[in-house]
Structures are given as C-alpha cells and as structure tokens.
Amino acid sequence: MNRTGPRTELGDFLRSRRARIRPEDTGVASFGGRRRVPGLRREELAQLAGVSVDYYTRFEQGRAENVSESVVAAVATALRLDAAETEHLTRLVRNTGRAASGANPAAAAAAEDVQQVRPGLRRLLEAMPETPAFVLGRRTDILAWNPLFATLVTDFAALPPERRNKAWLVFLHPEVRGRFVNWETKARDLVAYLRFDLARHPHDARFAALIEELGDRSPEFGPMWQAQEVAEKTHGGYHLRHPLVGEFTLAYESLSPPDDPDQTLITYTAEAGSPSEAALRILAGTVSPATDTPHRPGTPSDSRT
Fold first, then answer.
1. For residue 198, what are the contacts with CB-CB under 8 A and spacing of at least 6?
2. pTM assigned to the model
3. In whole angstroms, what is the distance from residue 114 CA to residue 282 CA?
4. Going by C-beta distance under 8 Å and a sequence separation of 6 or more, which residues neighbour residue 236?
C-alpha cells in the first residue's frame, strides 16, 4: 500500500465526504452538466460553506495557508461531519500546515517512545478479575491486559511484542478473527479508529509500517482503509464466540486519562442476568488464581508495527 502525505490525506478525506452527499438533499443551486463523480462538486460545496470556489479548491488540495477555524467549521458543517470527523478534519488541516511550513514537530520523536502503563491503570486491571479489560495504546498496541481478557481473545503473552496489536490480530490472526461473529463490523470499526488515531501521529514510522503491512497482507483492509471512515473509540458492543461457551454478546466502554489520550482502558461487560453474563462467568472460572494478575511487560509497546 502506498504511503501518502498530509496534503493527499486531506484531499482524499474531503473528496470522500463530498461524494456521500446528494446535491438534491442540500438545496444548493446545481451547476448543471453531466456528473462524472457522485456527490457534491467543489463549486457546490464552496457555495454551501460560503467561500470562493478557488479558495475551496486550494483548501482541498492542501494549498490554502493559515486556514481559519471558522472556515474549517463552515466546511465541516457543509459536509455534515460528525464530532469525530470534524476533529479529524481539524487535525488534517493542522498537519498540512505544518508540512507546508517545513516544521519537524517534536511529536515525531515522541511517537517512537515506548509507552509505559501508569500504575493506577494497572491497579484497575487488578481490581477487575471478573471483567475482561486491557489498555490500548498508539496504533492499537495492546499495552497491558488481565487474564480474563486473554482468555476471551488469545494468549497475548505467547505472542512476540510486535504482534500484540489489536489491528494486526483482528485482520491477520485466525484465532482472534474467529472470535468475532460479525467480523466485518469489528474490522470496519477498527479501521475507522486507526485512521482517526493516525492523524494524531502523522510522523509515526511504526504506524505507517502497520498500515502498509495490513494493506499488503489483508485483502479486506485496503477497501476499508480507502473508505476514509473515522471514529473515536467510545462505547459499543460485539457478538463474540468462544470454543468453551459458544456465542454471546458483550458491551465495551473506553476510558482515557485526561492527561494521556494515547492510552485507553477498555472493559467488557454483559447485561445482568443474561446468558452472556453466564457465559462470561464460565470463562472467568477457567482463569487460574495463580495467574490472576495483569500482564506486566517491561517494555509494553516494544512494537515494530
């Protein structure tokens, strides 16, 4: 998969958002003529955003310097972006501006730093022996986990550090892939979060290598990545399967420390009194008390992906 720069990322995202809007749904004056692509034309989007066609064209091409917050907001409104998409657009604009100015932000070096899980987050994992939980880092690296989460998904400790990555496992690890009954839904959600997170770390070489490997090795990843979907990791649920208990449904919640948005504690729970709760209790009962402590690798994010 070919790597792209900030300008290309911005242009691809804006064009993908234009393509999903039908002109007849906006009330914008049509510019007539045969439409070669779906969705809004640049002229129509510029009209909705209240900017000149020339200015919007340069903006979409990443050539508009010092784009104001009001213009970004107007374009986001015209494109009907949700909160995550608007935040993503803002980051893409910022990344493009930095690239145009030749800036080499310190974040490029920071992205290579090994992430260390705070003691407080580890204690939370220890305090939830009957709740599958793990700490997600940059690039969807799995930084720490408790034994029940390993029982639910796979034996992370048996994997080399560079393979303890949620995206890699979901797309390229047969056992993990088989855990999700609706695998495509899980995969699309994960790709949307990956793209959202990548805009926060545009200079992360390991991130770029992960995207390239997934594109080269997974036939499903490329089309999902090209769809330009973005989403923050918040809450939801998945239909899972396990060889010991069959199929069941769990809900997840994501909690990020205010001072470290690059680490997220994710927990899985089942509805009280449901068959899924019974299944989760059976799995919890298989965890040996002797190993009932969260994983504590010395370098939890020693990942080459």
1. 204, 207, 211
2. 0.88
3. 36
4. 189, 251, 252
Q: How many CB atoms lie within 10 A of CB 99?
A: 18
Give kind and range of the element (H or E) at residue 134.
strand 133-136
pLDDT digits (tens, 9 = 90+) for 151-210: 999 999 999 999 999 999 999 999 999 999 999 999 999 999 999 999 999 989 999 999
Helix axes 53-60, 69-78, angle to 10 degrees: 90
| pLDDT of residue 23 exceeding 90 | no
Beta strands at 235-242 and 142-145: parallel, antiparallel or unpaired = unpaired
- Structure tokens that stand for 117 in this block: 């899980």
Block residue for tokens 């917050």: 69
Count the alpha carbons within 13 Å of 203 in the hemisphere toward its beta carbon.
Answer: 15
- Position 295 confidence tier, pLDDT thresholds 50, 70, 90: low
